[in-house]
Amino acid sequence: MEKTSHKLGVVALTALVTGNMIGSGIFLLPANLAQIGSISIVSWLITGVGALLLALIFANFSMLSPKVGGPYAYVTEELGEFLGFQTAYCYWIAAWVGNAAIAIALAGYLSVFFPILSHPWPACCCALFFLWALTLLNIISIKGVGFFQIITTFLKLLPILFVGTIGWAYLHPAYFTEAINVTQPHQSNLSAINYAVALTFWSFIGLESATLPAESIHNPARTIPLATLLGTGITAVVYILSSSVIMGIVPLAQLQKSNAPFALAAQIIAGPIGFYIIALGAVISCVGCLSGWILMQGQIAMAAAKDGVFPALFAKQNKEGIPIFAVITTSILISALLLMTVSASLAEQFELIILIAVFATLVPYFYTTFAYWVKIRKEKFTVTAFIKLILILLAGIYVLWAFIGSGQKIIAHGTMLLLSSVLFYIPVLIRRKSSVD
């Protein structure tokens, strides 16, 4: 009989999905979106629908192929090793680049309690400390990570829902109407929405989290799709409610300059005590999110290493089944990125990093959507099959929209990232040829 005492169930896995999405995005993004204006609320609605479409694709795929590695496993199975390698390569990079952004947001909210963290280098050192403390937790026990996700997800939802519900009583409609589009230099409303879609998409990265650690999940064929849909639905509701409130109760000028916009909104609702309580909630949120993504970064690399497309060391596991080399190596890369992107403005550093992470994630999402079409294309034409095709079409359109919205500069850097994957694939081909010979 299979042992399940060390495996994740529906509650823990839903907490992992929700916790991986509700992290730094909801707490720091309002400051970035304030540079665009209240029209960015439209992007939350678009991105929420797009995220649910992608969640349905991952949920359906997981029922057909509940394998370790999520997007990488699905793409490799249906589209071949090279595109599978590109998926693992981009997704792995997105995971650790995104972790750098989460660590930055964590330091930003801790600056509420420790003002010295408003300065670049102290903030960087703080981010590094939490990165390595949570890396240690992930090395010790995956069950401990699951429990930690349940606790932190519950604690983070309480203050967020408080602001997202009570805050409606403090709305100033003029804040929406007076700052619809404040982009500098001024962009058209469509261009502003497109750019905001790329930014808000960052907050939904992680909707596929349940599909990655399949070996560590109890009854994956049922648990993975359920946790994916529940987690994405919860996140979409929380984001749309709370983000709309923040833009409606905090003056634009203050929001644009804030390192802790969510706490600023809470201060308006509940005074100084609200400011500190929400700041603490944001810290807990970022800690939980960072812990969950450290788990993900190791699982991605391990799945690719087991198939021989990443170095074999990435598949090395400790007695808890945790890919220790992959986790540690990736955290070293995050540390290097934090040190290389130190900026006087946390918001600027955060925005640059998340746009890189968004592009790197969109590639695996697009490939997975196409792979799902390949998976089901031989099904008989029925109403169900037609609905699946519509789902694939809409999800594909949304991903392409997010690509375009990220901007020419990020697209250019992202294209170079894809091209670089070809160079890293050459050693895989050499190893394949050597093993055949």
Give a brief outline of the structure.
With 437 residues, this protein is mainly α. It contains 17 helices and no strands.
Name the CATH superfamily classification. Amino acid/polyamine transporter I
Determine the strand fraction and express it as a percent band.
under 5%
Low-pLDDT windows of residues: 1-5
The helix fraction, in percent, is over 70%
What's the pLDDT, averaged over the residues? Answer: 82
Q: Architecture, CATH level 2?
A: Up-down Bundle
CATH C-level: Mainly Alpha
Shape label: globular
Tell me the major beta sheet: none
CATH topology: Amino acid/polyamine transporter I
Note the main attributes of this structure:
437 residues, mainly alpha, Amino acid/polyamine transporter I
Blueprint (SSEs and pairs):
Layout: H1 10-21, H2 24-33, H3 40-64, H4 71-79, H5 81-110, H6 120-140, H7 142-166, H8 173-177, H9 189-201, H10 220-249, H11 252-257, H12 261-270, H13 272-306, H14 324-340, H15 346-376, H16 383-405, H17 408-436
Helix pairs in contact: 1-7, 1-10, 1-13, 2-5, 2-15, 3-9, 3-10, 3-15, 3-16, 4-5, 4-15, 5-6, 5-13, 5-14, 5-15, 5-17, 6-13, 6-14, 7-10, 7-13, 9-16, 12-13, 13-14, 15-16, 15-17
Structural notes for this entry:
By secondary structure, this protein is mainly α. The chain has a single domain (10-431), classed as Amino acid/polyamine transporter I. It has helices spanning 10-21, 24-33, 40-64, 71-79, 81-110, 120-140, 142-166, 173-177, 189-201, 220-249, 252-257, 261-270, 272-306, 324-340, 346-376, 383-405, 408-436. The longest helix is centred in the middle third of the chain and has 35 residues, at 272-306. The protein is globular and about 65 Å long.
